[in-house]
Specification:
451 residues; alpha/beta; FAD/NAD(P)-binding domain; Enolase-like, domain 1; five-stranded parallel β-sheet; 11 helices; 25% helix; 27% strand
Length: 451
């Protein structure tokens, strides 16, 4: 048996952040990371290896070795198989058994198997895992095809579609409206206009029931309406599931979405075992319901919280829930979302008010490369607490969603926002007279006075 002090399972962003945090907070403790693959990809960068932005899979690697060396952590290449929480040991595929003081599970997620789609595993059908070897083979296989069908209109589906069309492929995207879980319809329409302009065919509201096979490989897809659409390759971007293989047989509690159940300090039900990232259960910051959201920003926040509370509870460092903060880019337009959408608020029975503001992204608006900024703000009807925000704008607006996320997490009200002070500049921002966050807040305050 090999004795370790702090043991981390996984090699993604949350694993590296928690390892770095542990080295920072507990310099007298050794930190060891067990990961099954020698290479790890930047998850959010995967779509861009299929277009013109990243030349190869190698351009999208997390430099785990360099990071581990700089942090003073140990990297062990092995596959974790079995946790014994009572004995405080971890058994790996190589046969090695490690003891630990503290164990952190950061095993991430894997693509969901869409078993409702017949022949989902046929030759010529791909998913989008975080495996460098798989993505290399997929990239090679797609190089010579002309027509691609992508099933799924979430972030991965939309971004891969956008990249493949930029590489000259004929792309059909099938699913609900774009990014339905993160944006309301009046924001989704901006994305759909860009997708259409770029030449991606969107079959909105359609559902694939079967992969059609011809001569031993995928030939196309059959829709619920029995319509068959031909393609040279099919990509199933139908979501991800928590990777909990190592936790399932250990007595660690699993939640309703198949993730490891944790408290606000990222502790599992077994003493000295923590879980973070996609494999750990999330709770929505606004609704307090269990949430299936998986985000690198959430995962790394959890990593910092776990590190801060590993050996003793630090009451000011707990994870209060995911605000579901997202951003993406299509062409030169940025899209961002944080908190609940209007449709989610309705579903949850939240009484709310909302408004949409459209302003020029620079001032005066005649300046070169000025783009329109669109902000939707959602607040509670009683009290005016900001619970949701969505935006569309130029690339310079991408960071604004982070400010809006901080506003939501801080439970600011619209009354707080109308007095918010921000730096403005003609080439960088909209005008101080029409800065969209404060203008939207002012419009919501006006709704209070009308009642």
């Amino acid at each position: 048996m090999i004795k370790k002090e702090i043991l981390v399972i996984g090699g993604g962003p949350s694993a590296m952040v928690v390892a770095g945090g542990c080295r920072m907070f507990y310099p007298n403790k050794s930190v060891s990371i067990i990961k099954k693959d020698t290479d790890s990809m930047v998850p959010c960068g995967i779509p861009y290896v299929f277009g013109n932005l990243l030349a190869s899979v190698e351009d999208d690697m997390i430099p785990c070795g360099d990071m581990a060396a700089k942090m003073g952590t140990e990297l062990i290449y092995d596959k974790a198989l079995k946790i014994d929480g009572e004995a405080k040991t971890l058994t790996c595929k190589s046969g090695e058994v490690y003891s630990y003081e503290k164990l952190i599970i950061a095993t991430g997620s894997t693509p969901k198997v869409p078993k409702k789609i017949k022949n989902y595993d046929a030759k010529g059908v791909f998913q989008v895992p975080k495996s460098p070897d798989y993505i290399r083979k997929m990239q090679s296989a797609l190089a010579d095809v002309q027509e691609v069908i992508i099933v799924g209109t979430g972030f991965i589906g939309v971004e891969v579609a956008d990249e493949l069309q930029s590489a000259g492929k004929k792309v059909t995207l099938i699913g609900p409206r774009l990014l339905k879980s993160s944006f309301d319809e009046e924001v989704s329409v901006y994305m759909e206009k860009i997708i259409d302009k770029n030449g991606v065919k969107l079959l909105k509201g359609e559902r694939v029931t079967e992969i059609v096979i011809k001569k031993g490989r995928a030939y196309g897809v059959k829709l619920k309406s029995d319509t068959v659409i031909k393609a040279d390759a099919i990509i199933l971007a139908t979501g991800y599931a928590p990777n909990i293989d190592v936790a399932q047989e250990s007595g660690i509690h699993i939640g309703e979405f198949g993730a490891i159940r944790v408290d606000e300090y990222m502790r599992t039900n077994i003493t000295d075992i923590f879980a973070i990232g996609d494999c750990a259960e999330k709770r929505d910051f606004i609704t307090r319901r269990v949430s299936p959201v998986m985000l690198a920003s959430t995962a790394t926040a959890e990593a910092r919280v776990a590190a801060a509370n590993l050996f003793s509870i630090n009451l000011v460092k707990s994870f209060k829930g995911t605000i579901g903060i997202f951003s993406t880019v299509m062409n030169d337009q940025a899209f961002g979302s944080a908190g609940v959408t209007e449709s989610q608020a309705k579903k949850e029975g939240i009484e709310y008010i909302s408004t949409v503001v459209k302003v020029a992204g620079k001032h005066p608006a005649v300046l070169p490369n000025t783009q329109e900024q669109v902000i939707k703000l959602i607040a509670t009807k009683k009290g005016g607490v900001v619970i949701g925000a969505q935006l569309v704008g130029g690339l310079d607006a991408g960071e604004m969603i982070n400010m809006l996320g901080a506003i939501i997490e801080s439970r600011y009200t619209i009354f707080d926002l109308i007095g918010l002070q921000v730096a403005t500049h003609p080439l960088l921002t909209s005008a101080p007279t029409t800065y969209p966050v404060m203008q939207a807040a002012q419009m919501l305050v006006a709704q209070f006075f009308k009642e």
